[in-house]
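ARCHIVE CARD
Drawer: 12
Card no.: 0347
Subject: one protein chain, sequence and derived structure
Cross-reference: see card 0346
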Amino acid sequence: MKNTTILSQGHAKQLQLHNKLRLGTWNVRSMLQLGKVQLLGEEMIRLGVDICGLSEVRWDGQGHFTTLDGHTIVYSGRLTQGMPGVAVWIHRKISGALVGYEPLSDRVLVVRLKAKPRNITLIQLYVPTTAVTDEEMERFYQDLSQAVKQVPKGDMLLVMGDFNARIDRKEPSAMSSTVGLYGLGETNEAGEQLEGFCLEHQLAVANTMFKQHPRRLYTWTS
């Protein structure tokens, strides 16, 4: 893969997938404030999260580092600070399972973890809003599709992040392997694009598969 960073794969710690692994994703709006990395780690510990994908971190450059508390953060941004940016936070107890990553852009980051019986590939996203042109949105999904196609066949694939999309509730007769019964609101154009992407790559929109109280389904409205 172009620009792939490979860490010490031969000595990487192996995650056991029969153990519980808690993942999350969070649009943090910015990680530029002093002390924000420390606060992030404290919140993840409080919630019991092992891996968290971050959107809109606004850092410049690409790479990875270890926090003062021993957690690992992989990030991908532009050359200039203040642009969207994505990252993945990994708890110190499993950070040794990180074997490599590929920062594709300030909106797409691919991270690979060594696990048994199957390795895990995470793709963290920050999808553009519908304010961008159709050409820009199409280019984003083309790049994302290419990233998905390059994932090793045996890996467990998880695509997560801020999709800036809505997918509505489905009737039981309309339920599919891609979208479940428990969406929210009315499907918008971005939601239709997301559904099409998931159908193409045989992915499921996990948020729609489990019944939750509405207050658990969103935290912000425009």
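Annotation on reverse: The longest strand covers residues 120-126. Helices lie at 36-47, 134-149, 189-201.
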